[in-house]
Amino acid sequence: MSKSFAYRHIWCFWRFNTPLLWFPQPLKYWPAFQQSHTFNSMSVFKNDNAIANQTTVNESDVKRNVEKINDIYECSNNTKSPCFPNSDSRIPLVNWKTSTNPTLQVRAYMLDLLLPFFTLDLLPFLNKVCECCNHMLLDNPKIKQDLPFAFCYLFSSYFSYKSSRQYTCSSEEISKVFRHLNRLGGSEYVLHLFAQIPKALCKELTDVRTLNHPLRSIFTFCFKNISNPPNLLKLLTKLYPRSDRANEVLYTQYLGFLTKRGDYQIAIYMFDEMYRTHHWSSFTACRLMIESLVRQNKFEEAISLYKKIIAKRPKIARDKKILNLLLYISTVSNRSPDAFKLALQSISNANQIPSFDVFSRLMSALVKYNMTEMILPLVKQYDHKFRNLYSPNIFLSIVQALVFCGDMVNIQRWYNMSRVNSELSRIKHLLNCFLNSSTVSLDVSMVLELLRDLKKKKIKVDERTLVICITIFSRRKDLFAMEKIHQYFSDQGIKTSNQAYAALLDAYIEAEDTEKIELYLGKIRRLGITEDVSINRMLMRLALDRLDWDLLEQCTKVAERKDPEGQDYLSTITMLYHVRQHELNLALRIFSGIQKPNVVHYSIAATVLGNLNQLDQLLLLEKRMESEGKAPTALSLVAFVSSYCKQGAEGLDEAKRYMSKNFQPDKRALLFNPRTANDMTYPPSLFSSLIKEYTSLGDIKEAKQVLSTYLEYFSKNITSKPDIPFAIASMRLYCSLHDTVLSRQFWDLILQVAQQNFITTDIAAVVDDKNIPSPSGVIPAYKSALNVAAETYFSFLASVNSFQELDQEWSRLEKLGFEYDDSLQNKRIIWLLYDDRLDAAIKRVYNIFLSSKRIEELIPDASSQNSIISFFLSPDSPLYFSTLKALRDKLDMAVEDDFVRISQGILVPTVKYLQTIRRDNEILFNLLAKV
């Protein structure tokens, strides 16, 4: 059989048994070489088993400019014209071979040469094609610009032939074809070839549901090397209208390419063309567009686009990734209730939670929007759908949500469940949650549970965990527990980081422990970390605490060099420095020099203006803050309301207006939650100044109205825990009304908060494995914390002659470990005298003020009794002259009555009683004699 006969036989078989090997639609014409091409055909395929991948073509030399390709060549029967069929008319293969167009010659030559190998599988056939290209380039390097078109046409024909015979191949095999085409410099032809691949050949390639397409990296390379991809994509939709699915894949991939690169304007244009012109709205494309808008912080536009899309394709509302985006919008933006409502509606319509991620994000959103009542029902719904598939992350999200709500009962319950049902491998992350919620961190019981489990399960901790623990205990001012946990982690080999040293220094500054401050300052200097950002900020705070201007100037220089992001903090410290120095006008001057003041700066300025009684300036400051778009926080609300309350009746009206404007129900959850205000005392403190002012003015009706507003808020918002200032203000209100029952309720509330927050932590039982708990007591920093509250309540009890209850409550506080200051001790003596208990009053004077130990503390160098008496009669005496005068008056009355009632109601003659005082406590006797 001759060679020509074999070719004719193959041609006839091919022509009548397969689809025609032409492009179904015309391609654009590429300029041909002016000179003719010659090939040495005998050099081709000397080795039929040649390996592919031998083409070495520089891609930058063969880039094409799509904008130069403007017209599709019209069909012509003139074989000398390098045009392609635009109808069913076809140009025979022999005419291509005899064409004067070099591009057609290369294509005809390759097709003529490789037709016999169409029966091979894809990879062997690709090897033949690559070998052919290599030999052709060796024979004539000038044809490299014609090879991509020929390569594309050849594989288009091959794919059509194979598809008609139910041949399938994998995406990995097809990707090798496209990579070779890219190496030849045919990025545009990659997209042409993809648009022509029969769907049956590899269904995976036309899946628009995922952005992670098998050819994604290849498409990215093409989009980078094509000068105008949008024009080419439009052209493909015209050339291959039947390849609608493939074209949608290309559009979606280009959309992903644009959004990843940040070309949002082009992305919007392309999506609009997909959505309006071609009516494509795949889940992936919609998600890409919403994501791109979210990255630009265009939350309202993203929500608007979502609404338009689901109006056309309601099923998109159930897509878990788009749902997650909506919940993300609702949690990160200042206020996006629309996004949250849409997400909730979609979840409600589907009657199920679609994924773990959506559930976790949903927990955060519920906390933010103060819908804590929905948390547990949704947890039950999740439980029903996933059948107890509680992963560590899910348990973490549930406990986090409850932590942000301050719901201690359910926190403990779900944490215990996590121990049984799941290995809570991310247990240490909960410590960070507790740090963000002072409701939980001040209670500290759950912190101890976590530390116990960290030790029991031998979970590895890091420097960040140490910093969190130090911060939690320093916030409670429990220095013993803080030092104990620091030592415990250090013994485990955890290094004390710069942030940890800063946290320790912060704690000792707060506790005013001069000795420990100097100790850690020495360590910091020896380590050479004084210019660390976190350390420098604590040194600023130390300078503020000591009113050390030189140290503050040194810190300022360091901050200007190394802490550009800390300029706001520096301005805050400088303003507070001037405020403490009573240089209020200088503080305002610093504020006016800040280019973009934050809410803290506004709060300090409001406090200063309130102290200066400048109501007009305070109103202007409020307007400026609104005009700059600064949303009020809990701190700014307290600052403005308190400052307004100091301006008399007119200021009180402004305070009421300001609070009613900013304390709307839909704003409360944004203002008062553990994320926006670490100190949960802000919500009640907001009401404290108002209740106090209305009560002092005698406007009981308004005071009750403010109190009822808070109680309504408190009953619906478990994130807010009453603090002591609020309870004192409320108790003072009911004391003024002589309401014993409600006054007692608020007093009990004060003690409840105190027992929760002011009692020492039994840290030794955790780190030392002690089964016997250590005796608890009041944290030293809080020993005198209840003096103001006690004075208010005890004065009320004395005014209504409830001396028995006063004695009980006084003893109750002493048993808890709280201490009374000298002022309260003097009042206690007066109350005893009111109750006609002279003997008890005299004994208290001796035990509290005139014991040898107290005299030694007060007058270390006392040389005689006269000097002691002189001190106690001076203005510096802790025993007030008014107290001594009341004692002397009571004794004079006893002299007139001729007897004194002592313990157990026994009556003693006054003369004998005075002799006893002179014998047992001569100093007191002589002191009273001189009054």
Structural class: mainly alpha
Rg of Cα set = 42 Å
The parts where pLDDT drops under 50 for at least 5 residues are: 1-97, 674-681
Largest sheet: 2 strands, antiparallel
End-to-end distance, in Å? 144 Å
Helix amount, in percent? 55-70%
Average pLDDT, all residues: 77
Strand content: under 5%
Number of helix segments? 49
Number of strands: 2
Overall outline = elongated
- Widest β-sheet, arrangement of strands: 1-2
Mind sketching the topology for me?
Elements: H1 3-17, H2 93-97, H3 102-114, H4 122-139, H5 147-164, H6 171-183, H7 187-196, H8 216-225, H9 229-239, H10 244-261, H11 264-277, H12 283-295, H13 299-312, H14 320-332, H15 337-350, H16 356-368, H17 375-386, H18 392-405, H19 408-421, H20 427-435, H21 438-443, H22 445-456, H23 463-475, H24 479-491, H25 498-511, H26 514-527, H27 533-546, H28 549-562, H29 567-580, H30 584-593, H31 599-611, H32 615-627, H33 634-645, H34 648-662, H35 665-671, H36 682-696, H37 700-716, H38 724-736, H39 740-757, H40 764-767, H41 787-799, H42 803-816, H43 822-834, H44 838-849, H45 852-858, H46 865-872, H47 881-897, E1 899-901, E2 907-909, H48 910-920, H49 922-930
Antiparallel strand pairs: 1-2
Helix pairs in contact: 3-5, 4-6, 5-7, 7-8, 7-10, 8-10, 9-10, 10-11, 10-12, 11-12, 12-13, 12-14, 14-15, 14-16, 16-18, 18-19, 18-20, 20-22, 20-23, 23-24, 23-25, 25-26, 25-27, 27-28, 27-29, 28-29, 29-30, 29-31, 30-31, 31-32, 31-33, 33-34, 33-36, 36-37, 36-38, 38-39, 38-41, 39-41, 41-42, 41-43, ...
PPR repeats: 247-277, 282-316, 429-461, 462-496, 497-531, 598-632, 683-713
InterPro entries: Pentatricopeptide_rpt (IPR002885), TPR-like_helical_dom_sf (IPR011990)
Protein name: Mitochondrial cox1 translation regulator ppr4
